[in-house]
Structure to design on (227 residues):
């Protein structure tokens, strides 16, 4: 089974620029998550999708972050404009829909550096 | 904000020794999961323990869960250099299914 795919692996931008990350979850996984992981910390949930609908985006800074999951498969996360404090690893994860007690499957993440 | 706290923040041991790390949380949970993260990589699922379970084993891993104290522990026996990684607990809260919240992690270094 192919894992969760993310791209790019690394991105360096200047503050106030925009950036987008892409995620392709495991086939058949209806639930998709974006997490932000700042160096030395645990992952922080940004947004949770069920198919193409948003389940929870309470911790997403909506003034600059946006995410979509068209057709309920791939997802993109965008930051516009970026700030220095957005420097982090952005992790995508997926899991089976409706299956309680199922684990998260993570991609390798995108490391963002904002200068 | 992190929903779980892990202790210790860092742990350094020699090969063959056991490593124990603890996780405390605040809400009621469906299950608690442990993940490993190697440097520069994503998280890998290790073990899941349901709220009605008290102990679970998987290979060299042993997890306990005490819901009355809202705490869990992960024991790695006979550690190897390849166990060097950060370990995170993640809680699946009962009031918002699937909204996994992670602890801050324990960084484990195993020296040969």
């Amino acid at each position: 089974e192919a894992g969760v795919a993310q791209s790019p692996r690394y991105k360096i931008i200047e503050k106030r620029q925009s950036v987008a990350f892409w995620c392709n979850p495991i086939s058949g996984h209806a639930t998709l998550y974006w997490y932000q992981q700042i160096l030395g910390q645990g992952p922080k949930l940004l947004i949770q999708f069920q198919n193409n609908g948003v389940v929870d985006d309470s911790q997403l800074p909506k003034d600059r972050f946006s995410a979509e999951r068209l057709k309920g498969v791939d997802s993109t996360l965008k930051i516009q404009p970026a700030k220095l404090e957005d420097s982090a690893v952005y992790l995508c994860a997926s899991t089976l829909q409706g299956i309680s007690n199922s684990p998260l499957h993570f991609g390798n993440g995108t490391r963002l550096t904002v200068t | 904000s992190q929903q779980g706290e892990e202790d210790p923040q860092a742990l350094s041991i020699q090969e063959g020794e056991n490593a124990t790390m603890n996780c405390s949380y605040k809400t009621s949970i469906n299950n608690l999961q442990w993940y490993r993260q190697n440097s520069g990589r994503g998280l890998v699922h290790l073990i899941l323990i349901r709220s009605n379970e008290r102990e679970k084993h998987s290979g060299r891993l042993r997890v306990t869960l005490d819901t009355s104290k809202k705490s869990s522990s992960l024991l790695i026996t006979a550690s190897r250099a390849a166990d060097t990684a950060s370990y995170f607990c993640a809680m699946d809260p009962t009031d918002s299914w699937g909204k996994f919240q992670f602890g801050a992690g324990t960084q484990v270094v195993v020296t040969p």
